[in-house]
Amino acid sequence: MRAAELLHEGQSYVLNGIEELVVRAKARGITKLNTSALLAKLEAGGYFIDMSSLIELLNTIDAVGSANEKEIILTNALPPDADEENDDTVSKMASKQLTKKDRKL
């Protein structure tokens, strides 16, 4: 299933799961991720996605500079709506994601 079809069919939860993992990695100061490891983590979390769809979705996320089958390079830039004087934006984004996850439990 292609990324556009995933989102079109209302399954944006896959994208949310990917974004959550990417934001957590950025919050920890990680700049590179192994694509296969991310795919395995998503599958272990109950997300059903293939490698090509994962790469397509990764390339739609602002926090991702580039993604291919080997690795994901995270940007160190702040999101477009971030306050440039505030250097803890990534930590705040990660906290929001963790809070959302806690509410689901």
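[next item in queue]
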Amino acid sequence: MKKSLLLDADVVIDLHTLELFDKICGAYDVKVTKQVFDEVKYYPKNGIKIPINLSNEVQVIDDINVDFLKMVQREEREARLTIDPGEKTSIAYLLQAEEDITLCLVDKAAIIIVSYMNLNNKTVSLEKALRNAGHHTKLFPRHLETSFRKCIKEGKVRRLQNKLLS
């Protein structure tokens, strides 16, 4: 049985740009929230916008618990960061999910927030997700495990500063 992997919009777009989306779909049971599904429209290739159609490739999650979404928004404000709606719904789903699922993010603020919320054990860098799928390739710096770990560390520091000093 494949592991479930929840993707953010930036990850979906980057995977299409790098022509690695099929590799991830072959290795994982890929899911996105409805908000992410709506955000993902196209990816750039040779200066052209290529449409993305995820309809048959991923499971779309559209039942996000409002209380968990509000919790993400509170933590976002407390950490003094801003993340996009797709990232908010993805993190909220991570909180509510009864299944074993891992969230793949590349946006610095979103990675900091999941660490701030002590959810970093339910997240993965794009580099690590691809390596676990058996693929090794050159990636953008924001995809790398080292960049991911820096953001995780920053989230833990912010949590200590904000939670202990309040």
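[queue empty]
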